[in-house]
Write a structure and sequence with these properties.
Elements (H helix, E strand, L loop, with lengths): L25 E6 L2 H13 L7 E17 L2 H26 L4 H27 L5 E16 L1 H16 L6
Antiparallel strand pairs: 1-3, 2-3
Helix pairs in contact: 2-3
InterPro entries: GSP17M-like_dom (IPR025889)
Keywords: Membrane, Transmembrane, Transmembrane helix
Protein name: General stress protein
């Protein structure tokens, strides 16, 4: 995966543009899910098609937020304590490696301080929300459909191959 930089111009290795640019090419297939589009490109690759000419484009993007559960003081403090414990153990481990006295004591100290700080920060954050967001959720960026684009020089062959894929009976899982 390549990350673009606003300071670099020109092209990155592999000929990909450095700055965000609209995709180019002709549509050779359209799919309801990313998995189907990925399967189509995989089929093209298996058919000795030059997949470097292919781009999968998500169209009609949506941010989907799935609610996981209700937040309560118990859940917030429990999550804060666990998060703080991990950080505290890590800090205690590092401290124990560099201080020659009491490795176990350093770990225990890190754990206790981590749990206390995790509880404190979780409580402060939750109390400041004043009940405006009493649920936890996970967000995901999804598209309404996924188009497979191909450079014009090989688009016709790509369409023919994907038409063959559409005629194949589905594989039994």
């Amino acid at each position: 995966m390549m990350v673009s930089s606003p300071f670099g111009g020109g092209r990155a290795p592999g000929g990909l543009p450095r700055l965000p640019t609209p995709p180019t090419g002709w549509p050779i297939g359209s799919y309801a899910t990313y998995g189907e589009a990925q399967q189509a490109v995989d089929f093209l690759a298996d058919s000795e098609f030059s997949v470097s000419d292919v781009t999968i484009v998500g169209v009609d993007l949506m941010l989907v937020e799935r609610v996981i559960g209700k937040l309560s003081w118990g859940r917030v403090l429990g999550t804060g304590a666990v998060s703080g414990a991990w950080f505290g153990l890590f800090a205690g481990l590092l401290l124990g490696l560099f201080v020659n006295q009491g490795f176990a004591l350093q770990l225990l100290t890190g754990l206790v301080l981590g749990v206390l700080s995790g509880l404190m920060f979780a409580a402060i954050g939750y109390s400041m929300s004043r009940g405006r967001r009493d649920f936890s959720s996970a967000s995901q960026l999804v598209a309404g459909r996924y188009d497979v684009l191909c450079q014009p020089r090989s688009a016709e062959r790509g369409r023919e191959l994907l038409a063959k894929l559409a005629l194949k009976p589905p594989a039994n899982p």
